[in-house]
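Title: Comparing notes on inverse folding

I've been comparing how different people in this forum approach sequence design from structure. To keep things fair, I'm posting one structure and asking everyone to reply with a full sequence. Here's the target:
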């Protein structure tokens, strides 16, 4: 069963991944996106995520529908955390179940790239000496 959520609570990657596992699948691929300490040579102190939640949830739902059209997958889960996140904390989990691993890998990668590009969730990087709002990723060419 597909699901998509936005929360302020810490994310349990394993519990989220297990929610998409059906008996007819042979693979579940899960991306655990977490806060890293260094970005482009800057030391990150923490990140802050904000979203326009009603639209973000609608866009997540659309992404799942598009992924189902593009890839041979069974279930998809996307959960994104908002608020202040410290180094090492999980900000996003994308998990995909499929009968075969290749489709699950491809769909998971496509979903995270499109999520960053299209879903109205914004990331502020707070680093030593300043802070900056980070833009989404460029369009995928395939």
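Reply #1:
Here's my take.
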């Amino acid at each position: 069963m597909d699901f998509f959520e936005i929360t302020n609570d810490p994310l349990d990657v394993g519990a989220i991944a297990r929610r998409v596992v059906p008996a007819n699948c042979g693979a579940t691929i899960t991306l655990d996106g977490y806060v890293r300490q260094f970005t482009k040579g800057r030391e990150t102190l923490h990140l802050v995520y904000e979203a326009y939640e009603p639209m973000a949830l609608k866009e997540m739902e659309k992404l799942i529908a598009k992924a189902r059209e593009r890839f041979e997958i069974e279930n998809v889960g996307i959960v994104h955390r908002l608020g202040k996140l410290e180094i090492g904390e999980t900000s996003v989990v994308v998990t995909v179940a499929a009968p075969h691993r290749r489709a699950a890998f491809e769909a998971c990668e496509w979903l995270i790239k499109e999520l960053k590009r299209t879903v109205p969730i914004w990331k502020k990087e707070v680093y030593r000496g300043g802070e900056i709002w980070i833009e989404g990723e460029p369009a995928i060419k395939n």
